[in-house]
């Protein structure tokens, strides 16, 4: 049986392939975006886990929009306006998929930064969107390019990760956030804000969400994978009710609802008195690992490489001299370190800058030191 044309156009995830290769115990992986298992707040979840046996109602079919106690909690926690609502998804990735299926017709234009999150490109590729890119600066998207794009291309939506961008780690400035919101309102472009790393800030002041400046023109995706556990597979989508109603209709046909026991477990975790302390502990751990990696990279990388600091998230982006980055990644893998080369973060046909994405959250300080030495040794041979 022939697969659908939309699927034929979507490449398999290079990251999943390289993660499989990186499972070799002799390879130190800087490739994935994996949180450290030691950060999973299992102790904080134990009271709710033990009490699930006394909650038979959560093992029944549930509401498509989500577990009501969790939705009520999140509505208050996020201080949603009266015009807005929340819905629970099976990971924030499902939220992105629902948005694409609800709103994007084949050929519709979707704007993304280049480079951008691979999973988003796959989702929009499956609905046969026309992905239009704008370049990225250290403050966020190139605003002149973005306005020109909005004016000439007339896109339906702009997807972005403003807080600790995947893959570059860039955090948009306040001025950029305000200007992007202003442009989305002016040109009637829906802003799809993906915020999976927002809580992982380890330096600097937290900035408002972009969607705070254009609440009637935006949909916000949040994830609990990085601050609770990826295995829970719980994300939340918020936006004005009229934006979310089509998503609920599609989710009903997709999986009826996300796991209710997992939603109840998350609800108990979020209410725990020590949850904020838990997030602070994660940020401190990741900052210590980032500091080790950054110092080693500064010391060991060839001067031809460009390295920029980040204030949070999970990734460092290293620009390198022009080369075949896929071949370089294979060479690095053979030398015991796994990385992700830049082309996987660009749509087909884009102009690609040679770079590597490095993850610092799932390796020990000693492993990071060894991995950077292996990386630098190979780069010095370019």
Automatic annotation (TrEMBL):
SUPFAM superfamilies: PLP-dependent transferases (SSF53383). InterPro entries: Aminotransferase_I/II_large, Class-I_PLP-dep_aminotransf, PyrdxlP-dep_Trfase, PyrdxlP-dep_Trfase_major, PyrdxlP-dep_Trfase_small. Residues 27-375 form the Aminotransferase class I/classII large domain. The keyword Transferase applies. It is an enzyme of class 2 (transferase). GO terms for molecular function: transaminase activity. It comes from the Bacteria. Its EC number is 2.6.1.57. Its cofactor is pyridoxal 5'-phosphate. Keywords: Aminotransferase, Pyridoxal phosphate, Transferase. Pfam families: Aminotran_1_2. This is Aromatic-amino-acid aminotransferase. It comes from Vibrio variabilis. The lineage of its organism: Bacteria, Pseudomonadati, Pseudomonadota, Gammaproteobacteria, Vibrionales.
């Amino acid at each position: 049986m022939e697969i659908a044309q939309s699927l034929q156009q979507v490449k398999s995830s290079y990251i999943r392939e390289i993660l499989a290769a990186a499972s070799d115990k002799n390879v130190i992986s800087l490739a994935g975006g994996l949180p450290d298992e030691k950060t999973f707040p299992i102790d904080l979840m134990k009271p709710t886990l033990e009490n699930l046996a006394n909650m038979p109602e959560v093992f029944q079919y549930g509401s498509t929009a989500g577990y009501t106690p969790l939705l009520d909690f999140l509505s208050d926690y996020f201080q949603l306006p009266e015009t807005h609502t929340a819905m629970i998804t099976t990971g924030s990735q499902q939220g992105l998929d629902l948005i694409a299926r609800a709103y994007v017709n084949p050929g519709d234009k979707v704007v993304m930064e280049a480079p951008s999150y691979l999973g988003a490109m796959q989702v929009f590729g499956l609905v046969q969107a026309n992905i239009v890119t704008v370049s990225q600066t250290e403050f966020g998207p190139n605003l002149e390019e973005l306005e020109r794009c909005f004016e000439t291309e007339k896109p339906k939506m702009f997807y972005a990760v403003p807080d600790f961008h995947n893959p570059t780690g860039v955090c948009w400035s306040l001025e950029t956030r305000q200007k992007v919101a202003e442009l989305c309102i002016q040109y009637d472009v829906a802003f799809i804000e993906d915020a999976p790393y927002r809580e992982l800030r380890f330096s600097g002041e937290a900035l408002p969400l972009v969607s705070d400046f254009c609440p009637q023109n935006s949909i916000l995706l949040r994830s609990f994978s990085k601050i609770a556990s990826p295995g829970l597979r719980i994300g939340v989508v918020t936006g004005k009710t009229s934006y979310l109603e089509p998503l609920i209709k599609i989710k009903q046909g997709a999986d009826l609802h996300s796991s209710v026991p997992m939603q109840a477990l998350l609800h108990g975790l979020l209410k725990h008195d020590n949850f904020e302390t838990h997030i602070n502990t994660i940020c401190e751990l990741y900052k210590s690992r980032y500091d080790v990696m950054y110092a080693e990279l500064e010391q060991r990388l060839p001067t031809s490489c460009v390295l920029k600091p980040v204030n949070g998230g999970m990734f460092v982006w290293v620009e390198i001299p022009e080369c075949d980055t896929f071949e370089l990644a294979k060479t690095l893998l053979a030398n015991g370190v796994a990385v992700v080369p830049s082309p996987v973060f660009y749509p087909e046909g884009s102009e690609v800058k040679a770079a590597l994405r490095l993850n610092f959250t799932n390796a020990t300080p000693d492993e990071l030191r060894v991995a950077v030495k292996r990386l630098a040794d190979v780069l010095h041979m370019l």
